Amino acid sequence: MRTQNQSVEVASGAVRAFFLYDIADTIDLRRLRTVGGEGLAPAHLRLRPHTSPAYLEFPTPPLVARLLDEPVGEMTAERRIKLFDYGVVSIRLSIPYSGPWQKFVRLAVALRNSQDLSRAAERTMAQVRAEIQDALDDPHEPLIEDYFIAEVDRFAVPISSADLEGAHEADLGALILGETEPLSQPHAASALRERFSYFTDDLTIVQWDAAFIYDRPESAEAIGDILEFANSQLVELRTYDALLDRELDNIYAMQPGRRMPSLLSRRAAEQAGSLRYLIVDVLELTDRSSNALKIIGDAYYARIYRAAAARLALEEWQRQIDRKLNSVGEIYRFLNDQARAGSGQFLEVVVIVLIVIEVVIGVLTLHR
Question: Residue 359 has what pLDDT?
Fold first, then answer.
């Protein structure tokens, strides 16, 4: 991957890997004080000093802690965990870097294509889950999303975002796509389509599974948090989708077309009740995760969030879940109607039996 300027040096940067685990319906953050011996603190999203207000609002702020460094192959990763109240644990592994730009590109691509970071995340997740087990409500097998960010806070010689793109388009495309072979110019340009700059010397490029951030440390941190939050929504939506799939599979496995045996109305009522609670739970959890972050007062960060949400297809996932919820709702109404019909038939039988008993008693009385 050759560039026009081989002397570009990264003064301060990092390769960051996010691994997000949906492990429970909710996490009771009030019960947690420490993880891994480190204190937990509310994680507010701080923005640039001149923005108003100076943060992105979480109605229930997640908790964050920085753990001891973890070996990753021959390197060492800085570990930071974040716990969201809607059941998601995010593990961020960061490999700090300073040195030639070309080596930074190769390092970022190599780490994306390696299993070292995912293994380190699994070890960290096992440790964290064991410690927070008592705070989990309805824990389940985790679903996982990962996301990679190549971040440059400062170059040794200042460079504008326009010059960076112009001289290093192919490198940026390789960073974003995780490719080791040279990219064609049209393909590299397509990979960089979702790009944002606030000043002339910052640049954020967003893809569905990776991003490049060239910005001041406080703004780069906020953008990373926004991308992390979008991925937490994705893993939540995937969890709801899998939950609804399992429920629909169970329903479709029932033998259709057979007549309900006696007292099946009770079973129909139980199934209807179970589906009702499922619908309420999914709607409640979806609403809670969707409204967990209120982007207020800063159009730049809102644009980055919307681009990430579009790349991750959050709206499509939501529409798919809505369709399945509608199907489950129709089945719930059907089962509810069956239960009511079965109850009505049972009452009719009871009334008929009582009438027969009354007639029999009357006849026996007359013959005495």
Answer: 64
The closest of 206, 202, 207, 231 to 219, measured between CA atoms, is 202
Q: Which of 5-19, 50-64, 144-158, 316-330 shows the lowest per-residue confidence on average (mean pLDDT)?
A: 50-64
- Residue scoring higher pLDDT (365 or 105): 105
| SS3 annotation, 31-82 | HCCEECCEECEECCEECCCCCCCCEEECCCCCEEEEEEEEEECCEEEEEEEE
Q: Are 325 and 244 in contact (CB under 8 A)?
A: yes
Residue 165 has which token pair?
């793109």
**Measured at the alpha carbon of residue 195, what is the angle toward residues 191 and 200, in degrees to the nearest 5?**
135
| 228 vs 179, residue with greater confidence | 228
CA distance to 45, 152, 303, per residue, from 196 (Å): 19, 15, 8
167: tokens are: 């001289």
> For residue range 229-260, what is the model confidence (pLDDT) as tens digits?
999 999 999 998 888 888 777 766 654 444 44
Query: If you write DSSP's letter for every residue of 248-308 in order, what string do you get?
Result: HHHHHHS-TTPPP-TTHHHHHHHHHHHHHHHHHHHHHHHHHHHTS-B--S-HHHHHHHHHH
pLDDT at 315: 86
**Predicted structure pTM score:** 0.82
The residue type at 287? D
Other Cβ atoms less than 10 A from the Cβ of 344: the count is: 11
